[in-house]
Write a structure and sequence with these properties.
294 residues; eight-stranded antiparallel beta barrel; alpha+beta; 6 helices; single chain
Length: 294
Amino acid sequence: MKKVFFLTNLILSFVFVSAFVSCDKGNDNENDSGVSVNTLSAKWEILDNNGLYASFEFNKDGNYIVVENDVETNLRSLSTSSKNSLFKKNTPKAFSMRSSQSNLSSIHFGTYKIEGNKIILSGFGLMEVISITNEEFSFSFTLEATGEKNSFVAGKSDEPISSSSKTEMLCRTWIGEKVTLDISKFSEEDIYSFEEEYGEDWIAQIEEEETNDFKGLIALFSRAGTYLVLYDGEEGEAGLSEWKWANKEETVINYSWENWTDDWKNNVVTVKELLPNILSIEEWGLIYHMILIK
């Protein structure tokens, strides 16, 4: 009887110690700053309008966009006189450089990772979280290029794009694969001109030329209405735009390179295919095929 009592106490003691160790271990792994991919994924606008940065934005694919205040000013002062494209803007130069190529550019893009209360922005800098809630984000930021450290308070931006299954699929980071033509969108005059310039094999030649320019291009959409295009190449030029659904069915997109001051209703693209890892968009008879970036 004593032996049974001893074994029972031994088992209960083991269960108690295991539970205590498990709870203690759970507390050690808990992030005191409250920062996670879910809490961080948003556009955070710096509350000090006179500061260097306008916003820090993060998505669940592990990418960040940091915009400096001078870009916000430039975007509002620009005007266009010719037709835009979803992936190309008719300005002499793009606004920015890829962050991995130039730490001192106006728009910074790259990958991030969270380590405790630290957020490492690849090729750009280090954020240390002071506090983060659903509405406000307080942090310090050290610029990698200079070692300069400053503190910031940011508010979460509005998310004008309503949540839906299509929105969640679109609001990711995509990379260009190829371009095909929708011949039904070309007039007889267009077709005649192409045949004159390229010959009978004009479709294949145009698709090859467009694909060469498009392959490797990165596009990012977010619920904050952000639309970023990062062009491939050594200079890593980038374009910053805004987007929204043009219809209730969420099959057509309007976009604006000019903070909606241009005639954005003419900037229309049709979503031909949208799956968790595939995106095809048609504009001006060109179908851009993209896959989810890995």
